[in-house]
Amino acid sequence: MGGPDLHTHVALRLLLSYHGWLLETHGVMSSPTKTWLALVRIFSGRHPMLFSYQRSLPRQPVPAVQDTVRKYLESVRPVLCEEDFEWISALAREFLKLQASLLQWYLQLKYWWASNYVSDWWEEFVYLRSRNSLMVNSNYYMMAARAGNAVHALLLYRHRLNRQEIFPTLLMGMRPLCSAQYEKIFNTTRIPGVHRDHIHHLRDSRHVAVFHRGRFFRVGTHSQSGLLSPRALEQQFQRILDDPSPACPHEEHLAALTAAPRDMWAQVRKSLKTQAEEALEAVEGAAFFVSLDSEPAGDAAGDTPEPSGDSAASLDAYAHALLAGRGHDRWFDKSFSLIIFSNGKLGLSVEHAWADCPISGHMWEFTLATECFQLGYSADGHCKGHPDPSLPQPQRLHWDLPDKIHLSISLALRGAQALAENIDCHVFPFSHFGKSFIKRCHLSSDSFIQTALQLAHFRDRGRFCLTYESAMTRLFLEGRTETVRSCTREACSFVRAMEHQEKTDPQCLALFRLAVDKHQALLKAAMSGQGVDRHLFALYIVSQFLRLQSPFLDQVHSEQWQLATSQIPVQQMHLFDIHNYPDYVSSGGGFGPADEHGYGVSYIFTGEDTITFHISSKKSSTRTDSHRLGQHIRDALLDVAALFQEGQHLKRRA
């Protein structure tokens, strides 16, 4: 059915191994690339389905170890003093001489038998073996605003996913990305273990788990005639809201266990499984988790369709509520939780181990567009359609909680609340200019923002730091992410020029263009499997398996990312008219900082003229302040734009 058949997937795999198109100047296409595009079109078939290309995707290559070490040293040069750089260079030389060839040999061996030489280890060691709380450390959030339609839209997406009716993502409209991560969006839970967690995925689930005022419910999603209508789902949620029964002792705070350190939760879950197996299975076996918050999103209980009309403080509180909640009102183990606030706003909290942000983002775009524009609402504000009085009441879940669990719940709640209170979220839409202005400057929008972020961070902290930007490697089978190390020598030269009173605007602009070009080269290398970090990570894992000590790899592994960044892509522009309905675009989402004294920064281009930023940091750090960095980002963007003829009307640098 659609896509390449048995006779063509080998030819298509050879074609998809070509990456020359990535390296070409934007807007220019060479003859080989034109020929390649035509052949890909021929071999792809007319109507590819979501998983049509999986057998044809090439495997992620293992880069040459000398190249990786050289690129690594180049990336740390700007953030190290002379003495420290000499020291790490000596460690690198020793590594290349003593351990590199053996470790590389094992990776080459794995390349031949595994689907992807790094992704399974990445999932295992970065996510599943981490013993830290999932809250803030692993989960991320997405913003949006309505329970019946939203749940129905999510289930419609699942139906299309099961039938492979979601069109595979194609770069340039032709180069397919790996779809493997879509398989675990729904019916999936991360189960805690004493030493490592595992991901539990069911083929199907006919219910959602709902949390409201400390009580848990099981709500069926289907009747004999199929998927429940939005109005019928709304009726079920209203029944829960109207149910006056109180939460049982300790039940109210039970979900705080999912925010506890994983070893502790794993031990407690064993008791829970014996004492309250049915309730636990209903939650872990749900299609997804729904939290009906009894409070409005943020500070304001306004009724704007999206947060774009809200005050800054309200947006910050809204982000905080999605990322952390109150520590006991999200089931952090579920692949995602849909959070619906009392003022109709909604959002997602997503567990990170099973997939990366573009996957849940794709689902979220579909949900928002379907909820607003396909399903819609009647004049009285209800979901369209009719209630179904014959539906059974939602099933209240009962937890028989033994006394020994009570103390664990109290401890988990205290830890979760401390984590939640320590996170500082700041969200702001920057609307002086956006993607259209950057296009007119003939530059990559992502590289423009990343270089401006270097200027903002330097002004904030007075120094340069290792910067993590997430790039996808889904050009390859089961590819996940790679790191773009955005703090380059070129970016640092530009920042110093901007802070040097004697440098003219043309000089600064020339250095800015060099920094943007360098970032683009790094991004393309990362996407085509020639990045630094996943290769070094895999070499480190092999060294641990072989008990082979490498001071160089130990040092690389211990590095802290004080600036962790990510762009949230808008992937389905065709779903609705973005110009006439800008309020209905997701405002993106965010994540916690990767370091105690660091920042987490994500951004999304909403429409042509707005960029929404999400910044997080720890209140316990005396060195960071999310609002302060936000102001530096605003100033840096205006100062960079003012270097261009197009942006002369914007604020000049002091």
TrEMBL record:
<keyword id="KW-0496">Mitochondrion</keyword>
<comment type="pathway">
    <text>Lipid metabolism; fatty acid beta-oxidation.</text>
</comment>
<keyword id="KW-0012">Acyltransferase</keyword>
<dbReference type="GO" id="GO:0006631">
    <property type="term" value="P:fatty acid metabolic process"/>
</dbReference>
<keyword id="KW-0812">Transmembrane</keyword>
<keyword id="KW-0813">Transport</keyword>
<keyword id="KW-0472">Membrane</keyword>
<keyword id="KW-0443">Lipid metabolism</keyword>
<feature type="signal peptide">
    <location>
        <begin position="1"/>
        <end position="30"/>
    </location>
</feature>
<keyword id="KW-1000">Mitochondrion outer membrane</keyword>
<dbReference type="InterPro" id="IPR023213">
    <property type="entry name" value="CAT-like_dom_sf"/>
</dbReference>
<keyword id="KW-0732">Signal</keyword>
<dbReference type="GO" id="GO:0005741">
    <property type="term" value="C:mitochondrial outer membrane"/>
</dbReference>
<protein>
    <recommendedName>
        <fullName>carnitine O-palmitoyltransferase</fullName>
        <ecNumber>2.3.1.21</ecNumber>
    </recommendedName>
</protein>
<dbReference type="InterPro" id="IPR039551">
    <property type="entry name" value="Cho/carn_acyl_trans"/>
</dbReference>
<dbReference type="GO" id="GO:0004095">
    <property type="term" value="F:carnitine O-palmitoyltransferase activity"/>
</dbReference>
<keyword id="KW-0808">Transferase</keyword>
<keyword id="KW-0276">Fatty acid metabolism</keyword>
<feature type="active site" description="Proton acceptor">
    <location>
        <position position="352"/>
    </location>
</feature>
<dbReference type="InterPro" id="IPR000542">
    <property type="entry name" value="Carn_acyl_trans"/>
</dbReference>
<feature type="domain" description="Choline/carnitine acyltransferase">
    <location>
        <begin position="61"/>
        <end position="634"/>
    </location>
</feature>
<dbReference type="Pfam" id="PF00755">
    <property type="entry name" value="Carn_acyltransf"/>
</dbReference>
<keyword id="KW-1133">Transmembrane helix</keyword>
<dbReference type="GO" id="GO:0015909">
    <property type="term" value="P:long-chain fatty acid transport"/>
</dbReference>
<dbReference type="InterPro" id="IPR042231">
    <property type="entry name" value="Cho/carn_acyl_trans_2"/>
</dbReference>
<comment type="similarity">
    <text>Belongs to the carnitine/choline acetyltransferase family.</text>
</comment>
